[in-house]
Write a structure and sequence with these properties.
Number of helices: 2
Distance between the termini: 142 Å
Helix content: under 10%
Radius of gyration: 36 Å
Low-confidence stretches: 16-26, 174-191, 293-297
Largest sheet: 6 strands, mixed
Strand content: 35-45%
Mean pLDDT: 75
């Protein structure tokens, strides 16, 4: 009897112990979720090329690029972002508000041509004068290869929007350039496989930045004695000796000639001239002043901002010098103010 009571007591004690254990169990309090760790996002640092600070447009007539920059009148040009163009046409580089002078380069790249360079290539210096909103850019295509191209201006503070052109491969433009005063002076000889055997010159009209301004232009005729791939084509126009009436030297001697115009074209991928073949190429000449490109005159003598005007005014026959792929290809002396042509047509 005592044994049964003892056994029952043990069972009751164990039951109470188990029951107390069950009710006294502590469950952990759920912790608050910590911040989600994400991989750091790597962003490409902005460059001048992708900071858009200005706009580029093409002057067009009936959807085709034109050298005319007049948007007034019944048949005025229109500005567009895309156009079909011949070798010569004009662009407008603009910004939203006046500011300081802006210098840059006009860049070009082929689109949809796997054999061409994939990146933008600079080929023309451009300048937006201080306090100006717009500047006109005369373009002579630096390559004879037809196709689609993109153009943009990249300056010191950013770049312009892009324009897209369908280059036909045709020479010339929608504007007719008259020439006269045929000269009997033969072109000077030059060593190398490519020579300049003719030229047609059209003088500038108006002043840079003014409405209707047209820069001077020279169209060269080239001939190759051997099949040659040409990389660059240069023209430099040098003045005669001149004097600055506002700043005379102690000896009253004239100043040395200075360069008053220049043009340089880089051919993307080079352009081939076959043996005993001729080709013509037009080049737009730019003043070597801050009014046209951001560059000062150089050379001996005392110089001031008015020197370009003195040298140009006093020059009746300038020295036109040409280079092909960096090598001299001849020269000729002619007026920088009147239209003329010599040599082969």
């Amino acid at each position: 009897m005592i044994r049964k009571i003892f056994s029952a007591g043990i069972l009751i004690t164990l039951g109470l112990a188990c029951s107390a254990g069950a009710y006294s169990q502590v469950y952990p309090t759920p912790s608050k979720p910590g911040p989600i760790k994400r991989q750091p996002t790597r962003t490409k640092a902005p460059t001048i090329e992708n900071i858009i600070t200005s706009k580029l447009s093409i002057y067009t007539k009936n959807g085709k690029g034109t050298t005319s920059t007049s948007t007034g009148g019944e048949f005025g040009a229109q500005l567009a972002a895309t156009a079909t163009v011949d070798r010569e046409f004009s662009l407008e580089w603009s910004r939203s508000s006046p500011g300081k002078a802006e210098s840059g380069q006009l860049y070009i790249r082929a689109v949809g041509n796997p054999s061409a360079s994939p990146g933008f290539v600079p080929f023309l210096a451009v300048n937006l004068p201080a306090q100006s909103i717009t500047a006109n850019i005369g373009v002579t295509m630096p390559t004879p290869t037809p196709g689609n191209y993109e153009l943009k201006v990249i300056g010191a503070s950013g770049s312009s929007t892009k324009v897209t052109i369908n280059f036909t491969g045709n020479g010339g433009s929608s504007d007719v350039v008259a020439s006269s005063s045929n000269s009997s002076l033969p072109p000077s000889t030059a060593t190398g496989s490519v020579s300049i055997i003719g030229a047609i010159f059209s003088p500038g009209v108006g002043a840079p930045g003014a409405a209707g301004y047209k820069p001077p232009k020279v169209t060269l005729t080239l001939r190759a004695s051997e099949t040659t791939v040409m990389s660059t084509l240069d023209v430099e126009v040098w003045s005669q000796t001149w004097t600055n009436s506002e700043l005379l030297t102690s000896s009253s001697s004239k100043n040395s000639p200075i360069m008053i115009f220049k043009a340089k074209v880089k051919f993307v991928g080079g352009t081939k001239i076959n043996k005993d073949k001729q080709m013509t190429y037009p080049l737009v000449l730019r003043r070597t002043t801050k009014d046209d490109i951001d560059e000062d005159e150089g050379g001996p003598g005392f110089y001031s901002p008015a020197d370009w005007g003195f040298a140009f005014t006093q020059t009746e026959k300038a020295d036109f010098r040409w280079k092909v792929s960096g090598q001299s290809a001849g020269s000729a002396q002619h007026s920088p103010k009147l239209p003329w042509h010599w040599g082969a047509p």
